[in-house]
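Aim 2, interim progress: modelling of the 5-O-phosphono-beta-D-ribofuranosylamine-bound target.
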Amino acid sequence: MVRVAVLVSGGGTNLQAIIDAKAAGKIPSAELSLVVASNDKAYALTRAANAGIKGVVVHKEKDEDIAHYGQRLLAVLKENAIDMVVLAGFLTILPENVIQAYDHKMINIHPSLIPSFCGAGFYGLKVHEAALAKGVKVTGATVHFVNEIPDGGDIIAQKAVEVLPDDTPEILQKRVMEQAEWIILPRAVEDVAKNMEV
Ligand code: GRF
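Predicted structure of the complex, ligand included:
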């Protein structure tokens, strides 16, 4: 069984989608072994506790060397025998040492159809603000492997969502989460875990 850590920073709705999918028997190849939050205010930690999943906080200190932060994060993942990492609304930039340690074993959910509206500075509502500003009629979400380029790794799954005339960034974000993110991320966790040799 692949041991999965989910890295979070905020509300944890994508984490909840994975928890619910696991409970529904849709992720037989993986177990949710750990939730790592970048801050102690993340409601995702409450979701983890409610689901009986161990939750820890690994916070990058303001002036901390990023490689040092990476070593601390890797130590926590190693202590918990983590095979695969899922970034679900995780906002801390990961250093090379962490990305290399989980090459093609770390996935991320991005709230657009990559290569549109992605890369440095495109996260959360900013992504939907850019999509609305551009006037696209279709957007969606992408699950991809994590590499050293922000949102640059191989694409695993995508799902399109219609943009409606009166959409605000908040309305569009909610539709993309409900109709795309919360569907393709749990599926990707199972697909990647199933193909991993551990
Ligand atoms: C979501 O829009 C997700 O696409 C992005 O972070 C936002 C918050 O996700 N990666 P969550 O509710 O914390 O899972």
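The two ends are 8 Å apart (CA to CA). The chain has one domain: 2-197.
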